[in-house]
Amino acid sequence: MRTATYFFIFLNLSLALFEEPAVYPLPFLATAVLEVLCLLVFLGRLTHFAKVTLHSVFWKDTKNICIMVAILLSLTDLAIYGALRLYNVRSIRWSRIVRPIFLINFAESRQIRRAFRSIRNTLPEITYVFLLFMFSLLMFSLMALKLFGERNLQTAEGLPYFRNYLEIVFDLYVLVTTANSPDVMMPAFDFSSWYALFFIAFVIVNTYIFMSLFLAVVYNNYKKHLKVMLGGACD
């Protein structure tokens, strides 16, 4: 039963790869039939679970309510989307965002819910580190605007360089991943090699210090919450 449930959950999630818009789209009828099949399996599994569970317990479990609501929303969206296609009206399958609900709320997904709950409990404790990182990013962006914004520098494509604050924030955010290094600093470096010190300081502070600190806080808190939950499950 667990293997069959996971298979149809995986199949339901995989439909997003073949539904429009997709790189390899399948006919709407094919994806619709597969989705209805998955929803029928989910409904059958839920019905089976209701048969072996006390009526009062079943209806008090929010996981069961979430599954029923997700099935209803998926069927409603599928019917509306199909009706609109008959009249050549372009629309979007908005119910695809509720498909992960099946992965989380079935009884077979206890371990996934445990990991999800640990992540949820970890988020408030990493907020302070994240806010410090964002403050550092915003301050470096402001310094970059003051350093380079008034020098009329241009990128290799001839575009203005570091003159819009929001664009600077985005470029430096990408620099944290080093994905645009060293391209992002070349216009400033060509103007004066001393400006490389600004980008070196930014990478040291944000990439090497803040990202390492952020990773350590996430790992330690996630490990702590997971250990508490596993201990409670064993008790």
TrEMBL record:
It is found in: Membrane. InterPro entries: Ion_trans_dom. The chain crosses the membrane at residues 26-44, 65-84, 126-145, 165-182, 194-219. SUPFAM superfamilies: Voltage-gated potassium channels. Its main location: membrane. It holds the Pfam family Ion_trans. Coiled coil: none annotated. Gene3D superfamilies: 1.10.287.70. One of its GO terms (cellular component) is membrane. It is a multi-pass membrane protein. It comes from the Eukaryota. The keyword Cell inner membrane does not apply. GO terms for molecular function: monoatomic ion channel activity. Residues 1-16 form the signal peptide. Keywords: Membrane, Signal, Transmembrane, Transmembrane helix. Residues 6-224 form the Ion transport domain. PANTHER family: TWO PORE CHANNEL 3, TWO-PORE CALCIUM CHANNEL 3. This is TPC2 protein.
